[in-house]
Amino acid sequence: MLGMGSALETLCGQAVGAGQYEMLGIYLQRSCIITLVTALFLSPLYIFTSPILKLLRQSKNISNLAGKFALWVIPQLFAYALNFPLQKFLQAQSKVWVMAAISLLVLAFHVFLNWLVVIKLGKSLLGAAMVGNISWCLVVLAQMAYVVSGFFPESWTGFSLKAFKSLFGFVKLSLASAIMLCLELWFYTVLILMVGWLKNPELAVDAISISMNLEIWTLMITLGFNAAISVRVSNELGANCPKAAKFSVVVAVVTSTLFGFLFASSILATKNVFPRMFSDKAEVIKATSKLGYFLAATILLNSIQPVLHGVAVGAGWQASVALINIGCYYVFGLPLGALLGYKFNLGVRGIWLGMLFGCFLQTMVLILLMTRANWNKEVCTLLQHVV
Asked: Which of 165, 195, 211 is the C-terminal boundary of a domain?
């Protein structure tokens, strides 16, 4: 659904650049229709998470806990369905600080509620799920109230039956966007499944989960650049300013890479310390520390890669990037990780090394795609087709 939301990001951004503000509300409603239907179809995966994981030969304990948690967070699935379109609608119009304020307020409430329910009342996993449901619903309701309260007289003119027209073209772009992002995120999910097939899977999953958790923290900064460059590129292409779009790409990549170097250096300097933030078990801390170099390299690559993805979304290249993801991740990265992890007995480090090489190859291909692009031909063609 986040991928489907990026289709809205492309269209709304180009509509703003072209001055077609009246289409933004229509696009938002179309996207909400598609994502809500998608959430309905995804619900069985949440309901049958436990048997699916067992079928994939995951640890019984891990499968049972994951199955319970998935059932409890189904409300979040439908909150996501509305959050992503609303988010892209606001981003396209540069209402980022409003979203940040909403997120900050809900985050403060979320931290307090977690402390109260999970720690004080001792509701454990169920409490964490319920708190997550409440927090995500609050984010969605606040964003929705902001959109319909008269702050967008040109882009939100109320609910319209036009939202049900031209759905095929919108679904086509949404599916391409979803496939692009799913291939990216599922790659990391498959890695955790592969780690779950190793000996002593609980320890291995602990180590890689801690590392990926920290990676996601740093990735949030990069995703800010992803959103910014996506909006900038789509706006500039919609306004028929290809040179400005190209220059924005250079600025975003350089700036984000500098942050990547900063974060990677911090990981290397604290590789024996940061695991203690997540666990007090000596074996988990030791296993996670061994992944420090791999984590630092991944963080550095992930300071560049999401920015390039943002460029692709802004220009409407989702289908091309989806094909690149298949080749780099699933044809090259995963088989290499399996070979190193199982055949050469490198375990978690071998699997992660395969991921690292896949990410590196994808980054190089995307850079080549950007440098060879003819920006003069990218102006507003996608918007004209869908409208």
From this structure: 165
- pLDDT single digits (tens) 279-327: 889 999 998 998 999 999 999 998 998 899 888 887 878 888 888 989 9
Look at residue 378 in the predicted model and tell me its pLDDT: 65
Angle at 347 between CA 343 and CA 350, to 5 degrees: 75
Q: Are residues 110 and 143 in the same domain?
A: yes
User: Nearest CA to 213 among 263, 259, 275?
Assistant: 275
Q: What whole-number distance in Å separates Cα of residue 25 and Cα of residue 161?
A: 11
Q: Does residue 282 share a domain with residue 263?
A: yes
pLDDT, one tens digit per residue, over 199-213 is 777 888 888 889 988
Number of domains comprising the chain: 2
Q: Which domain holds residue 7?
A: 1-165
Instruction: State how far the Cα of 97 lies from the Cα of 272, in Å rounded to an integer.
Output: 36
For residues 213 and 249, state if they share a domain: yes
Q: What angle do CA 227, 331, 42 make, to 5 degrees?
A: 55
